[in-house]
Amino acid sequence: MRSPTAGPIVLDLAALDRAVYGAIAITPTPSLDGAMRRLSHTANHSKISFALAGLLALRGGRARRAALLGVAAIGVASAAANLLGKNLVRRERPDRLGALVPEARHVRMPTSASFPSGHSASAFAFAVAVGAELPRTAVPLCLLAATVAYSRVHTGVHYPGDVIAGSLLGVASATAVRISLA
Question: 113, 146, 156, 158: most buried, per Cβ within 10 A?
Fold first, then answer.
């Protein structure tokens, strides 16, 4: 994949991205495959985060504020990833058949561009926004977000760089929401 406008660093990162993706694809992990597939699917449309936000909102007080910040951060991250990032970069999805990603891992291949990962952006946006408001939730929510991000690579629908960029976008979105609503 050579681009006349891509510099050597971008090409090196793309090669590293493909190599890590390929290594994950060929590493046998039958005990993880079903769980990663289910998690990736369940995280569609931020269903996990919205369910958690609903539970938090029922508690009232700071928990309700955390839920609102988390949902607002998802909105910012989702718009930034899906309306801006994917349309600007237009990176093709990985060739999971060519990379030999086992069929037991497959989820539906999205038709949108690959970069950045919207799942990762939304999961981290929610985790960071809520975790900043309710510090005891920060570690579990960030671990959940990281697992959602990894599930997207494990199932073959994203390169590692897509989920890293999406995760960083989610953190930035949560930070922006917290600053703007302080």
Answer: 158
Q: Which domains, and CATH codes, for the chain? A: 8-180 (1.20.144.10)
- Distance between CA atoms of 72 and 74, rounded to whole angstroms? 5
Sort residue 171 into left (φ over 0), alpha (ψ -120 to 50) or beta. alpha
CA separation for the pair 124, 171 (Å, rounded): 6
pLDDT, averaged in runs of 10, over the chain (182 residues)? 60 88 95 96 97 97 98 98 95 94 95 97 99 98 99 97 98 98 84
Q: How far apart are CA 147 and CA 25, in angstroms?
A: 16
CA dihedral 12, 15, 17, 22 (to 10 degrees): -160
- Model-wide pTM > 0.85: yes
Peptide linkage before 30 cis (omega within 30 of 0): no
Kindly report the three-state secondary structure assignment for every residue of 47-95.
HHHHHHHHHHHHHCHHHHHHHHHHHHHHHHHHHHHHHHHHHHHCCCCCC
Tokens 């917290």, residue? 178
